[in-house]
Amino acid sequence: MKSVSICHRINNYYHLLDIAMAKLPIIQLPDPVLRQQAEEITEINGELQRLINDMAETMYAAPGLGLAANQVGVLQRLIVLDVAHRDGAKDLKVILNPCIKAGEGQAVREEGCLSVADFSAEVRRHARVTVSGLDREGKPLEISGEGLLAVVLQHEIDHLDGILFIDHIGRLKRGLYLRRLKKLAARGQ
Ligand SMILES: [Zn+2]
Question: What is the domain range of residue 108?
Fold first, then answer.
């Protein structure tokens, strides 16, 4: 594992990068990058820290509760989320190479997505999940959650495998939405 000094150096580095955060364009359905599998992250470097900062900035500005790297056109296994910021306080979670280790129960909740314009639907998922991965410094982490946190974790991890929340709803409903999207695209909206 990485020594403390390396972590410290990375820390200082991304404090500098905080100054230069940028909002990124959010990729929209039907862009194929949303349907591709993201790759494991094997190197923690300054470029990655900048991407994390930019993704967080983009998510807060949207505003959204979570964002996966596919949604900004980067095929790396990285998600950012914050289910608390609606209440004012920020609680940014950054997970590299996230993996659902355990899921229990079932819950249905209304979902939307920053990459799926003008649509929301009820989705059935695990009610409670445990996710493992790495933090932004490459240290192993584990997050267990239920309610909104469990939904956002599952929704964002799906993105890394090219899966969208509309894949979890009925075919009829999905078909109706996709046809509406095509019509809008044809009209140049
Ligand atoms: Zn989404």
Answer: 4-186
| Distance from residue 165's CA to the centre of ligand 1 (Å) | 7
**128-149, pLDDT tens digit by residue?**
999 999 999 999 999 999 999 9
Interval 76-96 mean pLDDT: 89
The verdict on whether 43 is a catalytic residue reads: no
Calculate how far, in angstroms, residue 1's C-alpha sits from the geometric centre of ligand 1: 32
Give the global pTM: 0.87
Specify the range with the lowest mean pLDDT, choosing from 85-94, 122-131, 141-150, 174-183: 85-94
List phi, psi (to 5°) of 21: -75, 145
What residues are neighbours of ligand 1 (ion), with CB under 5 Å?
113
Strands 116-125 vs 107-113: parallel, antiparallel or unpaired? antiparallel
Per the structure, the count of domains in the chain is: 1
User: Measured in angstroms, how far is the CA atom of residue 5 from the centroid of ligand 1?
Assistant: 36
CATH number of the domain where residue 89 is located: 3.90.45.10
Question: Which ranges of 76-146 does DSSP label H, i.e. alpha helix?
Answer: none
Enumerate the H helices of the chain as residue ranges: 4-18, 46-61, 147-160, 171-186
**Which pLDDT band, with edges at 50, 70 and 90, does 5 fall under?**
very low
Four-point Cα dihedral 45, 143, 159, 114, nearest 10? -90
